[in-house]
Write a structure and sequence with these properties.
Elements lengths: L4 E2 H8 L3 H9 L5 E3 L2 E2 L1 H17 L5 H26 L6 H20 L1 H8 L5 H36 L21
Length: about 180
Amino acid sequence: MLDACSNDEMAALIGVNPRTVRDLAARDLLVKIGRNKFDPRASLPRYCQHLRDAMTGRPATSEELRAEKIRLTAAQADMAEMAKAERADLMVSVKEFEDRWGHEVTALRQGLLGLANKISVACPHLTKHEVLTVDGVIRETMERVAEEAEARLRRLDAAAEEGRAGPRKARRRTGAGSRTGSSP
């Protein structure tokens, strides 16, 4: 076997292009013995081990293994912290939050839609037209707030999609947006 080979000869020997040989050398998967010179006796076993590791899914270097262990440990710590916080009632599940928030928004909506009738009872001197005007203003405001909330949620979803933080799985419509046209 050759004692030394050039970049092009090493590329031909392992069946890759010369640029790949330079990349492999930069990752210490091929042994350089000079400028544009490689030791094929030392390089081939390293390269073959790299291929075997890649096929089995093992990290190619101890540095990659260390980084993988650190990521795993951090993820496990995060999960333990979230479980601890949930047990301490510092956190609630998304489903539980949506249920609670949905009930609160529904109660608020019902209260706001009944406001015009309460005003008409409390202020009997108001004409029917004035009470309907108050009702219209309330409904318009509820519609505007619902549209603004939807726009904020769309922006959050887009930001989550960009950051791959994960898009929100499901969103219950709890706003007054689509229901403001109904009677109280």
